[in-house]
Amino acid sequence: MFVQIILPIVLILVGGGVYFGLTDPLIRGDGFMGNGQANIVELRNEKSALSKALVDAKALADRASDLKAKVEAISADKIQRLDDFLPDRVDDLQLIVDINNIASRSNMKISEVELKRENNKRSSEAEVEPMVATVPVSFTVSGGYADYKNFLKDIATSLRILEVKDLTFSTGEAKGEKGGNSYQLTVETYWLK
């Protein structure tokens, strides 16, 4: 009788004790076995998150290799044009030569060139320093009005970014000269810091 009634009850109680005492705390992470270690549900969630991060990292690596291939496919001529467009440093002499070449193509004479260096003082340490800086250049060109219009058109279509910031002009007759005008310009060019 003991074997037929009491043994099955004891086995059911032992099975319930094993489930509720060992298995369930491992799954949920609580109970007398929950000693602060990660439970199975948390580990599955972490595995899922890490698998997603691994897939994302693979996608980023593929994207990086695609971008690297595109960069390597850019010709040296295009890189040089981009460097002329937005250089990583200001070559004062080359800038003045470029402006003089534009003036010469437009039959203008350039004089009184002044290159101003800006003081790059930051007002506070929390302020973010811009990646692009400007260099103002002031100069005077003289010539006819039609030539001056061509000069401004050439400045606007120049490969180097030149932004006209200030313009004053005077006629040659005001100075006692015949024909020809004088135009004082201040332009800004940009460069990468």
From TrEMBL:
Keywords: Coiled coil, Membrane, Transmembrane, Transmembrane helix. One of its GO terms (biological process) is type IV pilus assembly. The chain crosses the membrane at residues 6-27. Residues 40-77 form a coiled coil. This is Pilus assembly protein PilO.
